[in-house]
Amino acid sequence: MDWTQGFFPETCWKLHEYTNDVKWKEAAHHFQNLFIDAKGNKTTHDLGFMFYCSFGEGYKLTKNEKYKQAVIDASKSLISRYDTTVGCIKSWDFGKEKWTFPVIIDNMLNLEMLFEASILTGDNTYKNIAISHANKTLKNHFRQDYSTWHVVDYNPEDGSVFKKLTHQGISNESSWARGQSWALYGYTMCYRYTKNPKYLEHAKRIASFITENLPDDFVPIWDFDIKDNTIMHKDASAAALYASAYLELYSYTNNTEYKKLATNILKSLSTDKYFSTYGKNRGFLLEHSVGNFPRNTEIDTPINYADYYYLEALLRLKSISK
Ligand code: GLY
After folding, report:
1. What is the end-to-end Cα distance of the chain in Å, rounded?
2. 235 close to ligand 1 (CB < 6 Angstrom)
3. Whose CA is nearest to atom 5 of ligand 1?
4. pLDDT tens-place string over residues 270-313
5. Ligand 1 centroid – CA 292 distance (Å)
6. For the chain, which ranges sit under pLDDT 70?
């Protein structure tokens, strides 16, 4: 089981929606069914990534009841990780020597499935948990400049913060590039479901931090605080996420700066520097992402979620450029 396995079916659903070619629908169905049994897994917070990206997207297009049930079942598993004292969903069970109740900024994306589960079931429990998680994260995960820590470790006895640290960034006080994108995408998405202006304002502030720190080619180094030239790898996945989130933010604000930035990112990702030569990159669209540098895995490599969010951003741009 891997947190990324929903992205390929999701890519296939998007291609089916775009082309109406049944081969993409069949592929999505096939690849998501390979992991359907994981919907009962209560040992990870990544269920939203896995099940909403795949079965959730599929349900929107097909209204297949089996897909709907998979989303509901996965949401039930996800909320079993919610702690009422902390007010958050626990992200990881591993690393007990490092933290007690870790909540990572990435977890914001898993809330999308909970908002949808409330719409599908009429039961607000899912949505209320998502809102509680978003509020507590807003309170504790952000620095004064609206950059985000990666991990906040809570005390489950009273909900206070034990410590703030990183797992995938260069240091505890650094700004891991993809973490900033989970934050931007996450609060923009929370605004989509709640229309709470607090989330929109927060997303705008996160966007300002990211914008101020983007390099000339609009694709960040994997952590904004890297000083060592020898490890300055680009992270196309973070850039693709910024582009997609900026476009959603543009749709709520009409601020053309967001659309311009997203367009510049997509133009940059579409150059030879990042876009693969056909037939040369094992089917991936983009090169140059970083999964987890500190653990020495997926460094300067293609990654399926970079491709997915690049495609999503291109489709979002196309839909508003008509
Ligand atoms: N959610 C894990 C990552 O962004 O690498």
Report:
1. 39
2. no
3. 291
4. 999 999 998 888 899 999 999 999 999 999 999 999 999 999 99
5. 8
6. 322
